[in-house]
Amino acid sequence: MQERTGGITSPRGFRASGLHCGIKKTKKDLALVVSDVPAACGATFTQNRVPAAPVVVDREQLARSPFIRALVVNSGNANACTGDRGMEDARAMISATARALRVHESEVLVSSTGVIGQFLPMQKIAQGIASAGDCLSKEGGEAAAEAIMTTDTFVKQLAVETTLNGVPVTLGGMAKGSGMIAPNMATMLAFMATDAAIAPELLQKTLKRAVDRSFNRITVDGDTSTNDMAVIFANGLAGNLMLTGEADPGFTEFAEALEHLLVRLSKMIVVDGEGATKFVEITVVGAASDADAVKAAKAVANSNLVKTAINGEDANWGRILAAVGNAGIDFKPTETEIYFGDVPVLRRNYRIDFSEEEARRVLQKKEVAIRVQLNGGPGSATFWTCDLSKEYVEINANYRT
Fold this sequence. Notes:
By secondary structure, the chain is an alpha+beta fold. It has two domains: 2-269, L-amino peptidase D-ALA esterase/amidase (4-Layer Sandwich); 279-397, ArgJ beta chain, C-terminal domain (Ubiquitin-like (UB roll)). Helix content is 33%, strand content 27%. It contains eleven helices and 14 strands. The protein has helices at 53-64, 83-101, 122-134, 141-147, 200-212, 251-271, 290-302, 304-311, 317-325, 356-363, 390-397, and strands at 2-4, 14-19, 30-45, 67-77, 108-115, 156-164, 167-176, 189-194, 229-234, 279-287, 337-340, 343-346, 367-373, 379-386. The strands form two sheets. Strands 1, 2, 3, 4, 5, 6, 7, 8 and 9 form a nine-stranded mixed β-sheet that branches. A five-stranded mixed β-sheet has the order 12-11-13-10-14. Strand 11 (337-340) and strand 12 form a beta hairpin. Helix 1 packs across helix 2 and helix 7 (290-302) crosses helix 9 (317-325). The protein is globular.
């Protein structure tokens, strides 16, 4: 498996475009991605009980057919909490895309991101979709990745190549996310494409497992959005033998490549966390089970007290231990050890004879590793997060204005 430059149009048979249609003042705000042939589709959606109209509509679309040709995405307006009109507008975006591409409406998905509670400017969007259809290209992946951004500060895209039973295949993807990032699938918007041939049911199962190990392991601020989704398209143009089961030759390589792609995109989102100054990797080992380790790592990653301490470069191990204590798992605090990098700041039986200077040197780095050893079993898990700064408050206090 090798990483390469590029994104969602890197696999065979995918084209894209991104442009400004007028939702935002000047920046690109409409993306279109198209497969030359019908593609098997897998998707995971937000668990938020207030799903945006595109989430509801896409669930309906995929219930009708797991084969999709196109995806249209707007940024700057979430089309969330917009009632019946929002549903009509989401379906209108699908219809406009189907007309522009001359495909069936059942072959189109829609996504939106941005401010909640405002209606879409549908005339501008309809015109934008027509224009986006006219400028689709193999080179349009980066423009599409730029067009889905909101408070993001850089384009998030990547491609990987692998071999399935002797046949080279490519996976590419793009993501957006900077705030409202919390692990409860999805955690942002992420769209992936591959030229591998894989059955829809297996693709869905593989995506969900990869999401659980990537997008569901990141957090910026503990908030899960109304619009979150992760979608993958597989058009089969690589020509490999169709993957239909996990025992098929090449499936392991495909699953590993997909998880690698999703983890890398996930880390890009954390690095770009709103106001973030540090990338933080939190690993919990020695839990009674992997599930308990996930709960503990998530509790630490979501703790505002931990995140602010990291921002202040304060080796406050007590906040980490307290977060684990709030995770709802059984463990022995007296057996717990905590490390900042390779510096032990807490040993068994609450031994804390560590060097504040050495711990601070770890926390002064842009990338900080925290390890929590519970010493109570075989379970382990890793989460990725960032610090919480004054700038985060400033960004979100003025998001609508």
